[in-house]
Amino acid sequence: MNIHSAETDLVFPFPEAPATGTVTEVAPGILWTRIPLPFRLDHVNVFLIEDGDGWAVVDTGIGDDATREVWYALVNGPLAGKRLTRLIVTHFHPDHIGLAGWLCATFDMKMLTSQTAWLGCLNISLSPGALDAKPYRDFYALHGLSAETVRLVTTQGHGYLRMVTPLPPTFSRLVAGDRLAIGGRVFDVMSGNGHAPEQIMLYSAADRIFLAADQVLAKITPNISVWPVEPDGDPLGLYLRSLDEIARTVPVDALVLPGHQLPFYGLHRRCTELAAHHEQRCDRLIEACRVKPSTVGELVPVLFPRKLDPHQLSFAFSETFAHVNALVRRGRFVWEERRDGVQRVRPV
């Protein structure tokens, strides 16, 4: 039964998610399962694509014992009798790559991903304290966070980045424009930016099936963040460019299989909604700064008015920064000279 959402005009052909340790067939030879997460966003979607005598796996869940137990339940339950053939990782966030090393070692699989995902995860894994270093703490202080908030964000707020098992020693690189054969299907490899650099997406033109990773979600917006390692970056500009490319490449009637929430129809409408959402947020920041120049820290409550824990605040600050940097790139905002050890932005 299809469920229609009046809120967004999307259609949800599978209104109930599979229970933990079970699967739902979303197309012939494509299974959907869910892995729990210990965050406010409490799950990640994993898809399995029939691949000869086994299943190719798309994404993993985080690297902890609870996730391992879910995988044992899957391979001894609904996936019993077929092997896991290879692992495709869409991007380097721990909920998608966290268990990659363990899965590949345990089930003798090869890992396929983008070079950026590989290097990004490897860098964090090899340097678990890097984001606590003084240049990064100074970044948060410069943009208006108190010393105590900086401490919380750089310790508790970044703790999730370390929820990964050691990566396999080798991988096969996926690049936009590649064609990837899995079983009887051929997928066009696409990549998008903004949420994660060089995030891998797969599109089967023959079946009109689009594995969108976290680039397009049905009812929430993927996090778009500026991080201390690239303080002048414009991830929001890259994300909006990616939405345009997706709408040009993938047809309106494709079934979207996202990294979170429910599969849906209505890709083009959702891309339009996501772009409009971010433009509205930019407008809100401009209005807030008409009253007085503000630090990024002071602007966080404009976009995120509810109380935030350190994990959520880390994302909220970085996403607010992404909108500020986009407005600077567009010539709508300008950075003021530093005063009192902090930097503020004002409308042009």
Descriptive overview:
The protein is α/β, with parallel strands linked by helices and 348 residues long. The protein has a domain at 3-130 and 167-277: Ribonuclease Z/Hydroxyacylglutathione hydrolase-like (Metallo-beta-lactamase, Chain A, 4-Layer Sandwich), CATH 3.60.15. It is 35% helix and 22% strand. The protein is built from ten helices and 16 strands. It has a seven-stranded mixed β-sheet. Strands 10-11-12-13-14 form a five-stranded mixed β-sheet. Strands 1-2 form a two-stranded antiparallel sheet. A hairpin with a 2-residue loop joins strand 3 (24-27) and strand 4. Mean pLDDT is 92; it is low at 1-6.
Element layout with pairings:
Blueprint: E1 3-5, E2 10-12, E3 24-27, E4 30-36, E5 43-51, E6 54-58, H1 65-76, E7 83-88, H2 94-97, H3 100-107, E8 110-113, H4 115-126, H5 134-142, H6 147-155, E9 172-173, E10 179-182, E11 185-192, E12 199-204, E13 209-213, H7 235-249, E14 255-258, H8 267-291, H9 296-303, H10 310-329, E15 333-335, E16 345-347
Parallel strand pairs: 6-7, 7-8, 8-9, 13-14
Antiparallel strand pairs: 1-2, 3-4, 4-5, 5-6, 10-11, 11-12, 12-13, 15-16
Kindly state the percentage of residues in helix. Answer: 25-40%
Portion in strands: 15-25%
What is the first-to-last residue Cα distance?
Answer: 51 Å
Low-pLDDT runs of 5+ residues are 1-6
Could you name the CATH topology of one domain? Metallo-beta-lactamase, Chain A
Mean pLDDT over the full residue set? 92
Strand order of the largest sheet: 3-4-5-6-7-8-9
CATH superfamily placement of one domain: Ribonuclease Z/Hydroxyacylglutathione hydrolase-like
Top CATH class of one domain: Alpha Beta
Oligomer state equals single chain
Order of helices and strands: EEEEEEHEHHEHHHEEEEEHEHHHEE
Number-wise, the strands total: 16
Secondary structure tally, helices = 10
Biggest sheet statistics: 7 strands, mixed
Radius of gyration, CA atoms, in whole angstroms: 20 Å
Shape: globular
Which architecture name of one domain does CATH use? 4-Layer Sandwich
| Class by SSE composition | alpha/beta
